[in-house]
Amino acid sequence: YEVVIINLAMMGQTLLITGATGLVGKALVKQCLSQGDTVHYLTTRKSKIKSEANYKGFHWDPQKNTIDTACFDGVEVVINLAGSSIAQRWTKVAKASILSSRTNALELLHSSIETHKFPIQHIISASAIGVYPDSKTRYYEEDFQGTDASFLRTVVKSWEGSLKPFQSLGIKTTAVRIGIVLDANEGALPKIMGPIKQYIGSALGTGEHWQSWIHIDDLVRLFRFVVESKLEGVYNAVAPNPVQQKDLVKSIAKIIKRPLFFPKVPEFALQMLLGEMSAIALESQRVCSKKIEDAGFQYQYHELDVALENLL
């Protein structure tokens, strides 16, 4: 009798994850499977579709408004991580793709759930701290209301706005505003670390702009916490201790034992090289993690040095 109870306790739920093959998605899928959950995932590439006992892929194309609705079978929670990378030169075409890939994905999920009346209880969508304006002095909490009309803020506001229609269906909605995700193999950290390893690393711009980061393991645990605690609303997904960009570079150099010879890269040089996209490297967002901590979430990696030592 006790064995039966233990087995039932270990049985997980079925989650639908979009963007499951990206940096965050892959780590989240691994965590969910290890917890006994069944994962359904949506992909635009049919070659990436797998069908296993607890891991099943389904095809969709938000740009063409097509989706295999079998993906919703048995699902009560949807985690949306879909969206094309912002780490590309912001041409007119790229900017349109960055925006539409986010809003179209949520619109297609909504219309499918509404049309077929799938019993989805909760949708949790990635968002970004790019919603907060560039500032070296502000300390941003989730209730900040700004009027900045830059491209990044326009994207994030539209992204989060696409969540609101789910509420009229009685579905709980959560937006997770993600900071710079630190991972050993993908994302921002290898790009920052590359020049440092080659002895040509330096701070960007003045180096005094704030960068709010989060260890990939903490981010995955935070998503799980939102699911299990059934949290609604907006939450920042950043470690409790943001750092200035110059200190991030120094910490990486110290851990991988490389000197920093070169002067700081001037802002105008980055703007010439990257154009409008230089905002990713130069904007300052000091973001607060208090709300998610007050909800009961506990970070494993509070300090940058400890996170970097673990990863590197």
Explain the layout of strands and helices.
Elements: H1 2-10, E1 14-18, H2 23-34, E2 38-43, E3 55-61, E4 66-67, E5 77-80, H3 92-116, E6 122-128, H4 151-161, H5 164-167, E7 172-178, E8 180-182, H6 188-197, E9 210-211, E10 213-215, H7 216-229, E11 233-237, E12 243-244, H8 245-255, H9 267-274, H10 279-282, H11 290-294, H12 304-311
Parallel strand pairs: 1-2, 1-5, 2-3, 5-6, 6-7, 7-11, 8-10
Antiparallel strand pairs: 3-4, 9-12
Helix pairs in contact: 2-7, 3-4, 8-12
Features:
eight-stranded mixed sheet; globular; 12 helices; 39% helix; 312 residues; disordered N terminus; two-stranded parallel ribbon; alpha/beta
Protein architecture, described:
This protein is of the alpha/beta class. 39% of the residues lie in helices and 17% in strands. It contains 12 helices and 12 strands. It has helices at residues 2-10, 23-34, 92-116, 151-161, 164-167, 188-197, 216-229, 245-255, 267-274, 279-282, 290-294, 304-311, and strands at residues 14-18, 38-43, 55-61, 66-67, 77-80, 122-128, 172-178, 180-182, 210-211, 213-215, 233-237, 243-244. Strands 4-3-2-1-5-6-7-11 form an 8-stranded mixed sheet, with helices on both faces. Strands 8-10 form a two-stranded parallel sheet. Strands 9-12 form a two-stranded antiparallel sheet. β3 and β4 (66-67) form a beta hairpin. α3 runs parallel beside α4.
